[in-house]
Specification:
The protein contains seven helices and ten strands. It is globular.
Length: 247
């Protein structure tokens, strides 16, 4: 066991629940923190939690000083936290949850020890662009840059396409219809959609390997702006990393 520690923010979402299962199934992590507005119920817990490595904690994102995020000295902070405008109820609430909560929580989780190398791995979305005139891609793009400016040793961002097999509590008709389209295109190119369990594998691998150890065949890229650079994996890179045996 390598003795690495992982903090997961957003473990109850479609990708987060699969990522939690990957973390628990791997011997690479000796401590795993699941922090969020709610945590996984015992009856929904994936195998592996009985080993005593998992710490679950309900936190208030409006009062992060009381959350103790920094106390864990986490080696990797995984973020799959996010929402939609419809669920949030307004554009203002959407940006608060989707961007402010994410950036502020990662700021709170950053170690004060300059010798402690920490990575932050963020699940963004295809089309993320800080300059977009549209709310959702703009929020994702601004979040990417906000995380990259926090001063982590590495910032790694995933921009997957359509999430095939996402288990959601809400019904998204537009997403379902889009899935038929990407499903047809996926036979031509792996650039349009990804199975959720495969994406979770890729995210965990990126956290373990870091940017410098990612195989060149994966096709990760440098993205961002001056003072806010990050490693970007698009949908094709996510598929390739998820399928590789590299660890």
């Amino acid at each position: 066991m390598s003795g690495k520690s992982a903090l997961l923010l957003g473990a109850t979402g479609a990708v987060g629940k699969k990522l939690l299962a990957e973390l628990l199934a791997s011997n690479e992590w000796n401590r795993i923190g699941e922090y969020g507005r709610r945590v996984t119920a015992p009856e929904n817990m994936p195998p592996g939690q009985q080993e005593g490595r998992l710490e679950q904690k309900v936190i208030d994102f409006e009062n992060l000083d009381a959350a103790g995020l920094k106390d864990g000295r986490w080696d990797v902070v995984f973020v799959t936290l996010g929402t939609t405008r419809a669920i949030a109820g307004s554009a203002e609430k959407f940006e608060k949850i989707d961007r402010e909560y994410v950036v502020n929580a990662c700021r709170a989780a950053k170690s004060d020890d300059p010798a402690h190398e920490q990575k932050v791995v963020y699940l963004s979305s295809v089309g993320a662009n800080a300059s977009s005139p549209f709310l959702y891609p703009k929020s994702k793009g601004l979040t990417e840059l906000g995380l990259a400016r926090l001063g982590y040793s590495e910032t790694i961002v995933f921009r997957p396409g359509y999430l095939r097999g996402a288990e959601r509590s809400d019904t998204r008709i537009g997403e379902t219809l889009f899935g038929y389209f990407t499903g047809a295109l996926s036979h031509v190119s792996p650039s349009f959609e990804i199975e959720v369990p495969l994406l979770a594998k890729a995210i965990m691998k990126a956290g373990l390997l870091g940017s410098s150890r990612l195989s060149a065949e994966v096709g990760a890229k440098k993205a961002g702006v001056e003072g806010a650079w990050f490693t970007l994996l698009d949908n094709k890179a996510s598929v390739l990393l998820g399928r590789t045996q590299q660890t």
